[in-house]
Amino acid sequence: MAEEHGRKWDRCLADTAVKTVTGLGVGIVFSVLLFKRRTWPVAFGSGLGVGMGYTNCQNDFRLPYLIHGRMVKDQ
């Protein structure tokens, strides 16, 4: 159980880091190309990445308790 929990945390942190860096990169590209080097696209892109990573983590930690849309209690 603890090993599985650790793997979920590792996946969660790696996924959040990838999504944040990708959002940051897309924000930088849009900032340079379209928005005359303003900072809000960078913050917006990285914020979207953090939000998507957080949502994926929530779903990943709830996953073993969901079976066909129903909550199952531990025995």
Automatic annotation (TrEMBL):
One annotated Gene Ontology cellular component of this protein: MICOS complex
Keywords, alphabetical: Membrane, Mitochondrion, Mitochondrion inner membrane, Transmembrane, Transmembrane helix
Entry annotated with the keyword Transmembrane helix: yes
Compartments where found: Mitochondrion inner membrane
Topology in membrane: Single-pass membrane protein
Residue intervals passing through the bilayer: 16-35
Presence of the UniProt keyword Transmembrane in the record: yes
InterPro entries: Mic10
PANTHER family assigned to the protein according to its UniProt record, in alphabetical order: MICOS COMPLEX SUBUNIT MIC10
Annotated family: Belongs to the MICOS complex subunit Mic10 family.
Assembly mode: Component of the mitochondrial contact site and cristae organizing system (MICOS) complex.
Protein name listed in UniProt: MICOS complex subunit MIC10
Encoding gene per record: MICOS10-NBL1
